[in-house]
Amino acid sequence: MRWIHGIAVQGIDVDAQTRCRHWHGATDVVALRMKCCGMWVPCFACHATLANHAAAVWPVAERHATAVLCGACGGRLSIREYLAAPAACPRCAAAFNPGCAKHHHLYFALTPAERSRQPSATTTRCRPDG
Ligand SMILES: [Zn+2]
Ligand SMILES: [Zn+2]
Ligand SMILES: [Zn+2]
Q1: For residues 129 and 124, what is the distance between their CA atoms, to the nearest angstrom?
Q2: What are 33-92's pLDDT values in tens digits?
Q3: Ligand 1 mean position to 120 CA, how many Å?
Q4: Which of 48, 47, 45, 9 minimizes the C-alpha distance to 29?
Q5: Residue 128 has pLDDT above 60, yes or no
Q6: Which ligand is the nearest neighbour of the Cα of 44?
Q7: DSSP annotation of 5
Q8: Cβ-defined contacts of 123-128 (< 8 Å, 24+)
Q9: From CA 129, how far away is CA 54, in angstroms rounded?
């Protein structure tokens, strides 16, 4: 666990900007709050390792919830704000990893239109190594 801009982020090898053992590139600076338990995590793999329950996703009706933390500036974003512009922080313009879009469905329920626009997870270079 690590305090990042006033939020306790729980993950494996978390750095000061929310990178973790699984995602530690320059642009991996987003932490997410899980719907199931309220835990802030750098990624779904950290949640899977640390939580003793299955992850739940935020329903479309709860897009107003504050569930995204920018590790660069500490900005707390609503799900709506984040999904509207997932490539960079709307507060500080720090670039976010574009590959994260492949995993949005692991955190947020997506509308059919959003799912059809989502990049395929099968081509991901995701490398969670537990
Ligand atoms: Zn959970
Ligand atoms: Zn992780
Ligand atoms: Zn920011």
Answers
A1: 14
A2: 999 999 999 999 999 999 999 999 999 999 999 999 999 999 999 999 999 989 999 999
A3: 24
A4: 9
A5: no
A6: 2
A7: T
A8: 124/99, 125/99, 126/99, 126/102, 127/22, 128/22, 128/43, 128/45
A9: 18
Taking the centre of ligand 1 as the mean of its atom positions, its distance from the CA of residue 83, in whole angstroms, is 20
Q: Give the number of the ligand closest to the Cα of residue 31.
A: 2
Question: Which residues on adjacent β-strands are paired with residue 126?
Answer: none
Distance 41 CA to ligand 2 centre (A): 7
Nearest CA-CA partner of 82 in 69, 71, 72, 94: 69
Could you tell me the maximum CA-CA distance found in the chain, to the nearest angstrom?
Answer: 36
**By the 8 A CB rule, do 44 and 58 touch?**
no
93 CA distance to ligand 3 middle (Å): 6
- Tokens representing 120? 């395929």
Distance 52 CA to ligand 3 centre (A): 30
